[in-house]
Amino acid sequence: MASACLFAVQTFAQELPPDAEPGKCYIKCITPDEFEDVTETVVVSPEYKKLVTYPATFKTVEERVLVKEASKKLVYVPAVYETVEVPYVKKEKATNLEVVPAVFGNDSKVIETYPKIGRWEYTELEDCPSANKEDCMVACFVEYPAKNQVVPFQTLTSDATTTPVPVAEVPATYKKQVVKTPARVEEVEIPAEYATIKRQVVDQPARTESEVVPAVTKTITKTVLVKKGGMTVWEEVDCNLVSGTPNLLPIYYELASARLTEDSKKIIDEHLLSLMTEKPNIRVEIMSHTDSRGDDDYNMALSQQRAQSVVNYLVSRGINRSRLVAKGYGETRLVNRCANGVDCTEEEHQQNRRTEFRIIR
């Protein structure tokens, strides 16, 4: 069960901390005294990259080539020619790509879904000689074992790669006439002769396009026994953190990714980790968003992964998971005009790939 928190300011005279100061904000937290249901997200299929290759394409070009050189001929003795073959590249060499797909393995994890507990149970003895049945009650301490669940999941053994496949060059030749013996005595001009040949050249080289297949997660709910509470704790907080407007956590994600960079982790340490460490009784909601590009359902799932990545990082730094709530809003809360079909710059789209937080009750 999550802690219950009430927001209070100095303008109300009732239910305030005894040492409250004017103009400051406080949170009243009451610790729970029952079982708590918590969730744990397990990656059953990891994020991986899918590759698609496109072979090189060729185009046919025409070239004007010299097939007979200019010369002169004589009135009495004409010029003599001979034919030679000239080599050229009819089709240039290139390289195509073949995909080696990703390889997966299988693994599993045992999760305790209900803890080991014990309690006193009362039974009445048979053939009780006393008229008062309470004189014949027997108390026994009974223990109940813990319950476990095995969760299978996939692991990425090796990611997809490509192998080059060479395309050989195709040579060819054409014939041309050259002057072997020039004309003598009276010279007559013989103009050059040209022809048009066709050959294939690379229009677009072979290329590879990649698509990131997001990770598939499974949420397991387990019940954890906690200590009895009932104590009231007041925490003083910055009034800006309990206003109606969510507080921006200035980390911006890469397109179609929920990965936290090292710079993002430093910002979380500065804005959230320090706050939750200093105020150990407050709870925080993490709200993540996407830009408008892509499928709406995919963006909603992606934003939930982004919020969960912040929660998982704070848990790894020692914050109790029960103090954190992850919520993804997809592309439903854009901060600018960049909705579906609107032409925007990458910087404008990045403003929507954001995370916010707020202190909750």
What is the secondary structure topology, with strand pairs?
Elements: E1 4-9, E2 25-30, E3 36-45, E4 48-54, E5 57-68, E6 71-73, E7 80-91, E8 94-100, E9 103-114, E10 117-124, E11 137-144, E12 147-158, E13 161-167, E14 170-181, E15 188-190, E16 193-204, E17 207-213, E18 216-224, E19 232-237, E20 247-249, H1 262-278, E21 283-288, H2 296-316, E22 324-328, H3 346-352, E23 355-360
Parallel strand pairs: 21-22
Antiparallel strand pairs: 1-2, 2-19, 3-18, 4-17, 5-16, 6-15, 7-14, 8-13, 9-12, 10-11, 20-23, 21-23
Short description:
The chain has 3 helices and 23 strands. It is mainly beta. Mean pLDDT is about 80; it is low at about 1-15.
- Topology order in helix (H) and strand (E) letters: EEEEEEEEEEEEEEEEEEEEHEHEHE
Number of helices: 3
Which band does the percent of strand residues land in? over 45%
Full CATH superfamily name of the largest domain: OmpA-like domain
- In the CATH scheme, the class of the largest domain would be Alpha Beta
What is the CA-based Rg, rounded? 39 Å
Could you describe the largest sheet, including whether it forms a barrel?
A: 4 strands, mixed
What structural class do helix, strand and pairing data support? Answer: mainly beta
Structure description:
Its main location: membrane. It is found in: Cell outer membrane. This is OmpA family protein. It comes from Mangrovibacterium diazotrophicum. With 361 residues, the chain is mostly beta strands. It folds into 3 domains: 51 residues, no CATH class; 92 residues, no CATH class; 118 residues, OmpA-like domain (60s Ribosomal Protein L30, Chain: A), CATH 3.30.1330.60. It has 3 helices and 23 strands. A 4-stranded mixed sheet has the order 20-23-21-22. A 3-stranded antiparallel sheet has the order 1-2-19, with no helix packed on it. Strands 3-18 form a two-stranded antiparallel sheet. Strand 21, helix 2 and strand 22 form a beta-alpha-beta unit. The longest helix has 21 residues. The N terminus is likely disordered.
